[in-house]
Amino acid sequence: MKRSLIAIVLLIGTASAASANDGKSMDANGDGTVTRAEYDAATQAAWTRMDANGDGKLSAAEAGAKGGAGWKTADADGDGQLSSAEFSAKKGAWFAMADTDKDGSLSKAELTAAKAMKH
Description:
Helices cover 56% and strands 8% of the residues. The chain is mainly α.
């Protein structure tokens, strides 16, 4: 399950970029951790950026995904696109998985560990 959640995140974009820089782009207040609020704000910004045609859904092409198993898992209603709710749900599931100490924020160590799990 953990590997499929990470695969989904990588398919839909932003977490791979964030984890590549240890979450610095999401750490709005610069305190070295990414809170759930900071993560949610970054997720919403990514959604807005990726929904190129502004139709409220992400196609596989907009998300840079190839439509594989991870995409199908994220696409809860099976319509071939991700709604904002589907996108947020999968991103939230990734955050919950990465927040190993369940304190509501991601430390650099947690981000690094979550990044390593994709391999």
